[in-house]
TrEMBL record:
<dbReference type="Pfam" id="PF08141">
    <property type="entry name" value="SspH"/>
</dbReference>
<dbReference type="GO" id="GO:0042601">
    <property type="term" value="C:endospore-forming forespore"/>
</dbReference>
<dbReference type="InterPro" id="IPR012610">
    <property type="entry name" value="SASP_SspH"/>
</dbReference>
<protein>
    <submittedName>
        <fullName>H-type small acid-soluble spore protein</fullName>
    </submittedName>
</protein>
<keyword id="KW-0749">Sporulation</keyword>
<dbReference type="GO" id="GO:0030436">
    <property type="term" value="P:asexual sporulation"/>
</dbReference>
<comment type="similarity">
    <text>Belongs to the SspH family.</text>
</comment>
<dbReference type="GO" id="GO:0030435">
    <property type="term" value="P:sporulation resulting in formation of a cellular spore"/>
</dbReference>
Length: 59
């Protein structure tokens, strides 16, 4: 995924499915470096991780 698409997803009200390592995640924010994002798994777990946006896949 690229930085522009991450920004579009963050500003959208639609439920857009994004996966990281095969797991569905919510994108919380694009980090200031423009190369990473903070995400958390969909569901009851709220653990957040910083990941490379190039590793995010939109379904």
């Amino acid at each position: 995924m690229n930085v522009n698409r991450v920004k579009q997803i963050l500003s959208s009200s639609a439920d857009i499915v994004v996966k990281y390592n095969g797991a569905s995640v919510w994108i919380d924010q694009l980090n200031e470096d423009g190369e990473t994002a903070t995400v958390h798994l969909r569901g009851p777990l709220e653990e957040r991780s910083t990941v490379e946006i190039s590793e995010l896949i939109e379904e």
